[in-house]
Amino acid sequence: MLTKQEWTADRRAGFAALLGRQRPGWSLEQPFYLDPTIYALERELWFPRQWIVMAHVSELPRRGDRIVRDLFGEEIIIVNAGTDGFHAFYNVCTHRGSRICRDETRTPNLVCPYHAWGFRLTGELLSGRDLPEGADKAELGLHRIGVREAGGLIFCGLDEESLPDLAPALDTLLPALRHHGFHNARIAERRSYPTSANWKLVLENFFECYHCRPSHPEYFRMNGHVAATAVSDEVAAAEWEGGVSAWREQAVAPALDRVVRHAGDIDEVKYSLYRQPIGLGRDTQSHDGKPIAPLMGDFTHYDGGETAMHLGRLSFAGCYNDHAVIFQFMPRGVEETNVVATWLVDADADPGTLDIGSLTFMWDVTTKQDKRIIEDNAAGVRSRAYRPGPYTALESQSASFVASYLEIMGRLVG
Ligand code: FES
Ligand code: FE
User: Which residues form the Rieske domain (predicted)?
Assistant: First the structure.
């Protein structure tokens, strides 16, 4: 892997020129989607500064519970240290580098399987047999990564030093997470959709619904707001706006009404929150639109709303009255991105009666369709015939994502 230092002056100048000649409002040139050296630079500079939702607290409820995950090609351990909170580390021993946790067994300390060095759940070196004279235990604690628990979600980021402050984002997001009962939820289902495409193609697709009418017939049919956002039809848009206004009058969570904040700076976290009806006549995002699980959090009845949240640049949540879906976009290689969907329900939802097929229907069918269209997109981008093309007005969020990517990379490399 190339480090920032290995980017020689020539290479740097070449990359700066490539960044500078990208046409505003158009998709990127081929190397951004295919070149392993650009991916290596993103892995060195861009990914470590990103917060992403990595887990839900129900995955490690007791002191000593730990989980092992891949984060941007690094294996990490997330640990519940009881009253000391949650901690996260690279899964790398500070003796000679062995992986420390092979599995997710609960233990009072973390013990490396190679020579049995032991570490506290908070990362400090506890014991190492026959440590050389003068070895300073304080220098040999585990390599930390950033971790924050908020409203039941566990956020991680690789580089503690350069991660942006999460607090401003949480000021907006925490009341919504609490309202939706994330802290008292459990995971009903988790599915992975490995997608053979560069992570930017995956996000560009996720940020627009221009493709919803041709590519997501089920979603398009069942979610009325798509009619306003996916077609250039002023009448449909006006009718939908009328429906939204009427819905807002009776919505049970006015505190979650439209609050949209985007931060484009590298020192800030991208976050946003907005609330809208999912489709007139539908209570929730189940297959038939009917209630599927107990109401979550502070909801006392169904209002058919969805709270959509950007939780950093690589994780998102769609929250309904009786369940929520978290999406994680995990870059795994220059043309490999894992999309993970996790469905949450109230902790008291009865597993015996919960209809997983109905619960997962909408986002499972939609994410499989997205995998196919993104992989078709990636196949075309590999062709010698590929050239950047213009984003339409209905792809404005994809265009602004690309613009902010170019700006951030320019600053980080410069
Ligand atoms: Fe972990 Fe030796 S490498 S104890
Ligand atoms: Fe889609």
Answer: 52-156
